[in-house]
Specification:
two-stranded antiparallel ribbon, alpha/beta, nine-stranded mixed beta sheet, single chain
């Protein structure tokens, strides 16, 4: 029988809903599953995008952390009061309906959460913030999108700097105030939600990381993709390591109940 010392923390990952052929599938990218296993030292499980409010407490009582993943889809703009999306924009209303209340419930319950790309944007929207749908169209901003004609490794290579805010979670995990990160997004944070703290910005001022300013469990969101080849990037390992540590601490408390 597993003990508190040997049991890996159970970390649930948000799922996207995709039609493959004529059937809907709930899917999670392999890179996120690998990052939970190899970077956070957790046991990765997929959480289907079912918007069942009655099940939130049951889910949160059984897990030790939540990873909200990136996705090709955007959060529906009507949720945060934004204008209609450009024609052809991909949305995932099932995921919106599942993840946004789950983020709020997880924060209230003190369950550690780590949010990446779309997950980062979901964190902001769930707590009352807003988004830019096309950062590259804002005067003075960089084009944060990847070149999809390049090979996958090139798309995920570092392309711009990052300035880390002193006194935050990132500053406590990384010894330098600046570092280069990858960039694969068109949508980005506009107004941060009340209660969220800016952790890092790109050279053009675009917000790249947010954390909860409250006293609850670990809550960090980043716009870049630290899950990519996680074990080969020291910053990525620091991020997932901190998330894993928070999940392990939560697991110890959960197993005592």
């Amino acid at each position: 029988m597993a003990t508190q010392e040997t049991t890996k923390p159970l970390i649930a990952l948000s799922a996207c809903v995709r039609e493959i052929g004529i059937h809907p599938f709930h899917v999670v990218g392999e890179k996120y599953l690998s990052a939970v296993n190899d970077g956070a030292g957790g046991l990765a499980v997929m959480l289907p995008s079912f918007a069942d409010a009655h099940a939130l407490d049951e889910v949160l009582a059984r897990i030790d952390g939540l990873l909200f993943t990136g996705s090709p889809s955007n959060v529906e703009p009507h949720i945060y009061g934004g204008p209609p999306s450009a024609e052809g924009t991909h949305h995932d209303s099932q995921r919106d309906a599942a993840t946004l209340p789950l983020i709020r419930a997880a924060l209230a319950a003190g369950v550690p959460i780590f949010c990446i790309c779309r997950g980062f944007q979901e964190l902001n929207v769930a707590l009352g913030g807003t988004l830019h749908q096309a950062v590259h169209e804002i005067p003075g901003r960089l084009d944060h999108r990847e070149d999809k004609n390049q090979a996958r490794a090139a798309q995920y290579a570092p392309v711009h700097g990052l300035t880390i805010t002193p006194g935050g979670i990132l500053a406590g995990l990384w010894p330098e105030s600046e570092i280069a990160v990858n960039s694969l997004h068109a949508q980005g944070v506009d107004q941060p939600a009340p209660g969220l703290r800016v952790e890092a910005v790109a050279p053009d001022g675009q917000i790249e990381a947010l954390s909860s300013a409250g006293e609850g469990g670990f809550c960090l969101g980043v716009q870049w993709h630290p899950e990519w080849m996680v074990t080969e990037n020291p910053l990525s390992m620091a991020l997932f390591g901190a998330f894993g540590d928070a999940a392990r601490a939560h697991a110890r408390q959960r197993l005592k109940r």
